[in-house]
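Input/output pair, single chain:
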Amino acid sequence: MGATALISFRESLEASLVIGLILAVLGRSERRGLASSVWAGLAAGIVVSLAVAFAFLRLLGQFEGRAEQIFEGSVMAFGSLLLATLILWTGSHASGRRLEGKAESAIAGGWLGLAALVFVSVLREGVETVIYLGAGLKDAGPAYLLAGLGGILLALVVGLLIFRAGARISSRLLFGATTVLLLLFGAGLFGRAAGEFGEAGLLPALVPGLWNLAPQAPGAALPLLADEGALGSFLKGLFGYVASPSLMQVLAYVAYLVAVFTLLGLGRRKPVGPGR
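Output:
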């Protein structure tokens, strides 16, 4: 549930910042009549995103057994790679200046330009959210759906408050704070993908059950840190926690963290000019 709220919040944040910035610019330039294009683009983006989510769930329901394991592993791996590109991209760009330039260009394009920008922003974030959450959506109950809706609403409120107050630096702080959590979530997805491929026989476990953090005695209550335990299930959903992982899962988790950290560090290095 925590991962659902975090992903929906982070993926909705940029779209909400775009909407908040456009409305602020329209207000300053006394072109409030164009605000209807913002709401039209938002509504269209939400409707199409829901259609994509519905189609994804219908497709997922067609798989069983080994085919389901391969499909779920592929979705998790793809989602983790998308998260890596998102982390690397936002980590090497000045989000505030980028969003402001995007909004100014769209406003110059008139009603259709504004509607198209909002529609594309919302649709992109919606589709990415479906891919990130992946196979977990199949078994999502009302609580998970409410968590996702809560993350979206919170992102909308935060985006509007940031630009109403004019505190653009807050957007950078929010992007930075959620990036750390998303990095751990992406590593968890990658490790879980390795686990799914291992169950399907596509990857070797190397060492099955490398350790067990939640041994259960016969007849005893479910341990707190078991995969389905009170704490274990939360950590599993948020960070891909597994009480008894294989060596392949651990290697996949660590490799993801090392690769993204390394690329993020390289992307933040600024070339030194000849006169410096």
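DSSP finds nine helices and no strands in the chain. The chain has one domain: 2-214+221-268.
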